[in-house]
Structures are given as structure tokens and as C-alpha cells.
Amino acid sequence: MNPEESGSVYEIKGGQGLINRLNALGIITGKKITKIDSMLMRGPTTVQVNRTKVAIGFGMAGKIFVEVDKRT
Fold it and tell me: What is this structure's pTM?
């Protein structure tokens, strides 16, 4: 995803610990998220879930698969 793009989470590839952590942050399968920005060199990624902004690590973000909404 590029910054300011939105989409729906369709899969999280990780263990139960990762899934539980993301669930606690509000990132669950079927939830719409928006990528706000990301840092250079594998730094954290900021996403918006509902009205909350959350920073997640590069490795964690790479395990979240999102179907990006089409632009009209």
C-alpha cells in the first residue's frame, strides 16, 4: 500500500501471538485500514484503524495482507 491508500484486511500471516497483538490494536480480518505513512529503511508504519492511528513495526506490517480499494 502507498500512503493515504485504504483497504480491507483479508489475511494475517502469523502466529497466534501476532494475531492477538493486532486484534488488541483493532486490526482484524475484514477491518478497513488506511496507511498514513512509513519510515525509510524498514522503520515503523503508521496506519489508521477506525479513528485511531497505530504505529506497527516493519515485520509486523509485512504480515498483514490488504485488498486495496480501487480509486475512481
Answer: 0.85
